[in-house]
Design brief:
This protein is mainly beta and about 140 residues long. The chain contains no helices and eleven strands. The chain has strands at about 10-15, 15-20, 25-30, 40-55, 60, 65, 75-80, 105, 110-115, 115-120, 125-135. Strands 1, 2, 4, 8 and 11 form a five-stranded antiparallel β-sheet that branches.
Length: about 140
């Protein structure tokens, strides 16, 4: 591995997050290449799987943003639809403009910002965010 013609698809799976209870920021570096150098990457997909509580966010919020410390959604932003059902999975097939800029430079600290849902009633929604990345 080491060039774009030999890219590999990986999935970064984050812990289950309660979007109704608050926001959280997770961070990671792309894994090293086989030759020990830092990988470059591209965002292929962002989503939430293993939803164990339906989403209630009719007033907005409820996003998974992939970016950096200075630009929260530099690479991607998934908007979580209100009333996303328990046991559903949402991703690029649900929100087709998720990917904003897919190229991630080697050595970049990637931050994933899970923002809180807001609702006129009680905000809710629990699920496991994931990011699919091509690396080389």
């Amino acid at each position: 591995m080491g060039d774009y013609s030999n890219k590999q698809l990986i999935r970064m799976t984050l812990p289950s997050h309660d979007f109704g209870a608050g926001a959280e920021i997770y961070s990671f570096y792309l894994p090293p290449r086989e030759d020990g150098k830092q990988s470059q990457g591209q965002v292929a997909n962002v989503g939430i799987m293993a939803i164990t509580e339906a989403f209630a966010n009719d007033s907005g919020g409820g996003t998974v943003q992939v970016g950096t410390a200075t630009d929260n959604d530099a690479y991607a932003k998934l908007n979580i639809p209100d009333a996303t059902a328990d046991e559903a999975c949402i991703d690029i097939n649900t929100d087709t403009d998720v990917v904003i800029a897919d190229d991630i430079a080697a050595g970049t600290l990637v931050e994933v910002n899970c923002t809180q849902s807001t609702d006129t009633g009680t905000a809710a929604g629990i699920g496991m965010p994931f990011i699919d990345l091509y690396i080389w």
